[in-house]
Amino acid sequence: MPELPEVETVRRTLQQLVSGKTISSITVSLPRIIKEPDNPELFIELLKGQTIRKMGRRGKFLKFYFDDFVLLSHLRMEGRYGVYGKEEQVEKHTHVIFHFTDETELRYRDVRTFGTMHLYKQGDEEKAPSLAKLGLEPLDPQFTPDELQRRMKGRTSKIKALLLNQEIVAGLGNIYVDECLYQAKIHPEKTPSQLKEKDWTLLHHSIVDVLSRSITLGGSSVKSYVNGQGEEGKFQHTLKVYQKKGEPCAECGTPIVRTVVSGRGTHYCPQCQLEN
Question: CA-CA distance, 6 to 167, in Å (whole number)?
C-alpha cells in the first residue's frame, strides 16, 4: 500500500500535471469505487465544469481541490493515477477517467479495486469519517517528540502497532515503521513505558528524516507503486531492514530478523534494536 512518501510524491506530480485543468466529462466503469455520493451519476454531474485548483494530502489520502468541491482519493493497495492524451490506449483495470477540456485525461487504474473516492463540498471534507480521526501529520511543525510521547502515554500496545495506528500518526505504514524503528534503535515489540526520553527524541527524528528522504527520492517502489508520470521511486534502494531477512545489518553485520508483530511482518536487527 502506498504510504505517506508515495502519496506525497503523487500529489506533487499531479500538482504539476493537472492543476488548472477543467473537467468536461467523467467515465466511471466501476461504480463501487465512488463512495460519496453513493450515486456515481451525481458524482459525475457535480464535477462537470469544475477546475482542479490544487492538490493536497492528508495522511495517505490525496485531496483534489476543485472550485466548489474536494475529492478525497485513497489508493489502497495498487491504485494509481496517470495523465494521457485522449487517443492513447486505455489500460486494463482503468476504472475512472476524468476527461479534460484540453483533450487530456486523468485516469485512475486499480488492479485490486480497493481504492476509494469521496466527494465533499469544500470545508466539509475535514469532517468526513475518513479524515476526522486521523492523527498527527509527521511532517507538520505540531509533530514534536513531546506530542508523540503524549499521544502514546498509557498505551500498552507494542510501539510497532502504535506507529501503524493512523489515529496517532497519519501516513506511516509497514515499510517506514520498520525503517524508522531501526534508525532509532528501538525494538518493535517495546511498549511506550519502556522508552526513555532520548528514545522519543530519536524516534521523532527518525520518522521525520526517513519520510523526508523517501519523498526526496520519489518514494519506494517495492511492489507496483509509480508516480503520476509512471516513474518508480528510488527509496527502496536505501532500505536498511524492510524485506532484508538474513542480510547483514548495515551497522553491525548481524543478520536481519523477520518476525510478526501485531499481525504484521516486521524486520529488525536483534543487535542494534535490543529487546531489553
Answer: 19
Q: Is 155 a catalytic residue?
A: no
Helix (H) or strand (E) holding 105: strand 104-109
**Could you list the pLDDT tens digit for every one of the 276 residues in the chain?**
689 999 999 999 999 999 999 999 999 999 999 999 999 999 999 999 999 999 999 999 999 999 999 999 999 988 999 999 999 999 999 999 999 999 999 999 999 999 999 999 999 998 998 899 999 999 999 999 999 999 999 999 999 999 999 999 999 999 999 999 999 999 999 999 999 999 999 999 999 999 999 999 988 755 554 556 666 667 888 999 999 999 999 999 999 999 999 999 999 999 999 988
**Domain edges within the chain:** 4-132, 145-268
Hey, what CATH class is 145-268 in? mainly alpha
153 included as an active-site residue = no
Site of grid cell 502506498:
2
Predicted structure pTM score: 0.91
- Give the class (CATH, top level) of 4-132: alpha beta
Cα→Cα distances 225→1, 19, 73, 131, 208, Å: 8, 22, 15, 23, 21
Query: Quick check: is 2 catalytic?
Result: yes
Catalytically annotated residue among 57, 58, 60, 63: 60
Whether residue 86 lies in the annotated active site = no
